[in-house]
Amino acid sequence: MTRRIELSPRLRLAADLVPEGARLADVGTDHAYLPACLLMEGKIPSAIAADLREGPLSRARETAAEYGCGDRMAFRLCDGLSGIRPEETDAVVIAGMGGETIAQILEAAPWVRTRKIPLVLQPMSSIPELRQRLGEDGFHILEERLAREGDTLYVVMRAEAGEEPAMTPAQLWAGRQSRDPLRGDYLRGLLEKLDRALDGLSRARDGRAEDRRRELAALRQELLEMREEWEAWQR
Ligand SMILES: C[S@@+](CC[C@H](N)C(=O)[O-])C[C@H]1O[C@@H](n2cnc3c(N)ncnc32)[C@H](O)[C@@H]1O
């Protein structure tokens, strides 16, 4: 019986967004479940599993050996994309890292932009900052999707070199509007977070707090409109 790797919903969504037939670089691979799974499914012909640390990379080697795909996987101990040559890869996944780290990794590898390499990005934090920096650094977010694991919703982005029209504050917070079935829950979660921030500010009395309160109130209004639009699509 052929063994299969069952990916978590977050990694499954990232894997689904990898272009068919791409020689994939998985940066920050850890166990290398994503590239190993795609190799076993026959969606990609080869992969480079890269990680900053030896421990995760040896876990990647173990996965490849366990599932018999080590002949199609190369392993690189490196920071970001620094150990990967442009001509070796057709697509890049960076999943399970902070948004700032993802942005730094892309900034340090300008060939990703000049070669218009398809990117699948799955930030765990600093997501508005990542959206902002991608736009500033010459990347266009083609699509954002959501995956649920327990109570947590994860954002997965598909991006590539291109012009990103300026985003409004709510678009930086929540991404551009989409019909993703989990979008309503995602917007609800962001509104709850915003309400907590507004609640905290309501006790502050200085002028800066008042400016921030006005800013967040405008953001809240825009998020509410996004949620109403999404709910209208569901009817
Ligand atoms: C939380 S794991 C994510 C593993 C897998 N990509 C996933 O999404 O499940 C993050 C991995 O990124 C690696 N990492 C962190 N910073 C990195 C960098 N600058 N370059 C390469 N790998 C990095 C860590 O060593 C760790 O193995």
How would you describe the overall organization of this protein?
Strand 6 and strand 7 (152-161) form a beta hairpin. The chain has nine helices and seven strands. The mean pLDDT is 96. It has 235 residues and is an alpha/beta fold. Helices cover 45% and strands 20% of the residues. Helix 1 (9-16) packs across helix 2, helix 4 packs parallel to helix 6 and helix 8 (183-201) runs antiparallel to helix 9. Strands 3-2-1-4-5-7-6 form a seven-stranded mixed beta sheet, sandwiched between helices. The protein is elongated and about 60 Å long. The structure holds S-adenosylmethionine. S-adenosylmethionine is lined by residues 11, 27-30, 50-53, 56, 79-80, 95-97, 101, 105.
Note the topology:
Elements: H1 9-16, E1 24-27, H2 33-41, E2 47-51, H3 54-66, E3 73-77, E4 91-97, H4 99-107, H5 111-114, E5 119-123, H6 127-136, E6 139-149, E7 152-161, H7 169-174, H8 183-201, H9 207-234
Parallel strand pairs: 1-2, 1-4, 2-3, 4-5
Antiparallel strand pairs: 5-7, 6-7
Helix pairs in contact: 1-2, 4-6, 8-9
The structure holds S-adenosylmethionine (SAM).
Residues 11, 27-30, 50-53, 56, 79-80, 95-97, 101, 105 line the site of S-adenosylmethionine.
Portion of residues in helices? 40-55%
> How is the main sheet built?
7 strands, mixed
> Total strand count, please?
7
Structural class: alpha/beta
Strand content: 15-25%
Quaternary class: single chain
Across the major sheet, the strand order is 3-2-1-4-5-7-6
The CA-CA distance between the termini, in Å, is: 45 Å
Radius of gyration computed on alpha carbons? 19 Å
Mean of pLDDT: 96
Task: Sketch the topology as an H/E string, one letter per element.
Answer: HEHEHEEHHEHEEHHH
Outline the low-pLDDT stretches: none
